[in-house]
């Protein structure tokens, strides 16, 4: 039986096709993808119930319906879902083609908002994830409305966004914000990737009312501001196979821990472990709950103060 329920707002999942090399023969993998799908997959692996709230349309949407693999609340739409083809036969990702998602109509958007609101109010925690960078299927204002409306009714909101989507969600007052150090600098929230600047950025983000701000820093220690205390999160050192998706898995771990009633400090450990496991695998948002829970006990939190030495 699943422990904890997490609603994930993923307005437009992607159809992903990846070509790998298997002993000199092309090996084709077809999956549902996109930030919210990868997060939902890890949430499910960690023993919570993931409910993906999304719009599906066109031929890509028809295929995605059979590939998502977790519980879904779906608005069937005329707008096509996006997709991409990646070639990894040379050991790195080469993008062959990318098709952006179509924008939703006014009626489609209203219905998607309504079904997401209902699913989120029934959940313990809601994750707001974004579409692909070049996809704009929904207005950025949707993130502010969802954050504000859920918070007004006791909903716990975790946002994993950047750019204008993040700015609008912050205006709604989320509980937890997950962001990468590159995104924090690009969004003008930190002057540089130095720890002191990132710490100042965390405090700026927390002024929205967030109880925790978590900044992933690639293979360096994660920086977290939890109720005005700064922590460095030291993950187990594992050999990376594919670094993509590590941040999404971290967000999933944070959300699951909160949905299961754990503390923010415990959520940091589970999130860090989920991110560490994900990068050891080729599949994004993948990894077993047993592996994540084992590694969570090996995550270390170290207090860090502004002006202190970088660890």
Estimated helix fraction: 25-40%
Estimated radius of gyration: 18 Å
Indicate the structural class: alpha/beta
Strand order of the largest sheet: 5-4-1-8-9-10-11-12-13-14
The average pLDDT value, as a whole number, equals 89
Number of helices: 10
Low-confidence stretches: 306-311
Describe this structure in words.
The structure is a single chain. The chain is α/β, with parallel strands linked by helices and 311 residues long. Helices cover 36% and strands 28% of the residues. It is built from ten helices and 14 strands. It has helices at residues 35-45, 58-65, 106-121, 141-152, 163-172, 181-186, 195-206, 246-259, 264-278, 289-296, and strands spanning 5-9, 14-22, 25-33, 49-57, 71-77, 83-87, 94-99, 125-129, 157-160, 176-180, 212-217, 220-226, 229-234, 300-303. The strands form two sheets. It has a ten-stranded mixed β-sheet with strand order 5-4-1-8-9-10-11-12-13-14, with helices on both faces. It has a four-stranded mixed β-sheet with strand order 3-2-6-7. Helix 2 (58-65) links the parallel strand 4 (49-57) and strand 5 (71-77). Helix 3 packs parallel to helix 4 (141-152). The longest helix is centred in the middle third of the chain and has 16 residues, at 106-121. It is globular, with a radius of gyration of 18 Å. Residues 306-311 have low confidence and may be disordered.
């Amino acid at each position: 039986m699943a422990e904890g329920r997490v609603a994930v707002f993923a307005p437009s999942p992607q159809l992903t096709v990846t070509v790998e090399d298997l002993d000199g023969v092309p090996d084709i993998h077809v999956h549902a993808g996109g930030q919210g799908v990868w997060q939902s997959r890890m949430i499910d692996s960690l023993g919570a119930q993931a409910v993906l709230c999304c719009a599906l349309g066109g031929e890509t949407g028809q295929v995605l319906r059979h590939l998502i693999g977790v519980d879904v609340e779906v608005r069937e739409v005329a707008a096509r879902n996006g997709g991409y083809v990646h070639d990894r036969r040379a050991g790195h990702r080469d993008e062959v083609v990318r098709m952006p998602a179509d924008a939703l109509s006014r009626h489609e958007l209203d219905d998607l908002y309504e079904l997401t609101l209902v699913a989120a109010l029934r959940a313990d925690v809601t994750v707001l994830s974004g579409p692909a960078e070049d996809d704009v299927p929904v207005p950025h204002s949707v993130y502010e409305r969802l954050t504000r409306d859920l918070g007004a009714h006791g909903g716990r909101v975790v946002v994993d966004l950047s750019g204008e989507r993040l700015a609008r969600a912050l205006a709604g007052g989320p509980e937890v914000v997950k962001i990468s150090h590159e995104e924090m600098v690009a969004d003008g929230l930190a002057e540089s990737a130095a720890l002191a600047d990132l710490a100042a950025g965390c405090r700026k983000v927390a002024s929205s009312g967030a109880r925790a701000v978590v900044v992933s820093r690639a293979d360096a220690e994660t920086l977290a501001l939890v109720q005005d205390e700064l922590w460095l999160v030291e993950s187990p050192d594992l050999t990376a196979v594919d670094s993509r998706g590590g941040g999404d898995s971290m967000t999933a771990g944070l959300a699951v821990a909160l949905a299961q009633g754990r503390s923010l400090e415990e959520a940091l450990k589970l999130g860090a472990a989920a991110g560490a496991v994900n990068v050891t695998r080729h599949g994004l948002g993948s990894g077993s709950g047993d592996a994540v829970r084992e590694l969570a006990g090996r995550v270390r939190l170290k207090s860090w103060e502004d002006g202190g030495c970088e660890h």
